[in-house]
Every structure is written in C-alpha cells, then in structure tokens.
Automatic annotation (TrEMBL):
<protein>
    <submittedName>
        <fullName>Uncharacterized protein</fullName>
    </submittedName>
</protein>
<feature type="region of interest" description="Disordered">
    <location>
        <begin position="47"/>
        <end position="82"/>
    </location>
</feature>
<feature type="compositionally biased region" description="Basic and acidic residues">
    <location>
        <begin position="57"/>
        <end position="66"/>
    </location>
</feature>
Length: 183
C-alpha cells in the first residue's frame, strides 16, 4: 500500500482525494452529519403583499414587539439571540463535503462527552441553538458574506461564526444555513 492511503477502522481513505478534517482525522466526503436548525417563517410572496392590506391586528402586534409583524415586508427581522426563542426547528442531514469545517459548531469540532445529553454522536448536534436557516433579504440591516452565491443575511454579523476569509453560510440556494456563535 502506498503512502497516499490512510486506514481508519475498516475503511481505507485516499488522502489525495478525500477532505482532511482539522480535528486530526480523514473523513469521506459522504460521511453524514445531522444538525437541528432554527428556521424563520417564509416571507410572504409579492402577490400576497399586494392583495393584503395591513390590518389593525398587525399594527397591534408590531406595537407589542413581534419581530415578524414589525417589518413592512412581513419578513422576520431578527436582531439578536433573544429573538431566536420560539422559532421552529427542523433536522437537516448534510454530507461532510457540503459542510465546511469553519461552519461547524463547537459540539462537532471537539470530542464528545457522555455528560452532554444533546450529543448523540460525533457527527450530530441536536441542541437546536447552534444553526439558523436564513432566507435572503435585502434592505436595511442586511449584509453579504464572501461565499459565492450568498443571498444576504439579516441576522446580525456579530452573532454569526465566520471563516477567516469571511464566509458565513453554506447549503443550497434558498436554504442557506449559518452557524451561530456560542457564548
């Protein structure tokens, strides 16, 4: 066997063609990660914005501080960690090749401990507070990271984990996910 191969357990990994995980292990690009992602509500379509006029009920909600109704476009505006409470969660499965190491939370980049009930394995984060699915938006407060195809972010940059080259999101178009900084 040449030095271009590395054995892990019962499989042999081609070091030249497979990604290297900075935690010190080679992994196949097909290895699967499972994460729980917070999701925001889908903004209303342009047609629905045109057909529905603002009602007095929506004005009352905006006064009470409901972030979804405070925006004139109906898109949810999140200004910090306190706005994440009550958001829906969904489970997302990603292959290692689609999941940049810089976008992984601390739970996936450090060794698992038995004391933490949220970790099922080294390849899943079931906490539900580490990732946010953002739907691109424009306007005041939005910003774009350096990832190719970024559709912009509305969640404040100071709460999002970025790579050294300024990339913050990953995933498919319309389903971009960001990793939140954990304090």
């Amino acid at each position: 066997m040449s030095s271009n191969y590395y054995a892990t357990g019962d499989r042999i990994v081609d070091k030249v063609h497979e990604p290297f995980d900075p935690s010190g292990q080679f992994q196949l690009h097909t290895d699967q990660y499972t994460i729980v992602v917070l999701t925001t509500e889908k903004p209303p379509s342009r047609l629905s914005k045109f057909l529905h006029l603002p009602s007095s009920r929506n004005k009352d909600k905006a006064k009470d501080g409901d972030p979804a109704s405070a925006s004139p476009s109906g898109a949810m505006k999140l200004s910090g960690p306190s706005d994440l409470e009550g958001l829906k969660q969904k489970t997302v499965k990603l292959q290692a090749g689609q999941f940049p190491f810089d976008s992984r939370c601390v739970h996936l980049t450090t060794m698992r401990t038995e004391a933490n009930k949220y970790w099922g394995s080294d390849m899943e984060c079931l906490r539900g507070t580490c990732y946010l699915a953002e739907r691109g938006a424009s306007g005041e407060g939005s910003w774009t990271c350096s990832r190719e195809g970024c559709e912009s972010h509305t969640y404040p940059r100071e709460y999002i984990q970025e790579s050294e080259d300024g990339k913050a999101c990953f995933g498919r178009k319309g389903e971009r996910i960001v990793c939140l900084k954990i304090e």
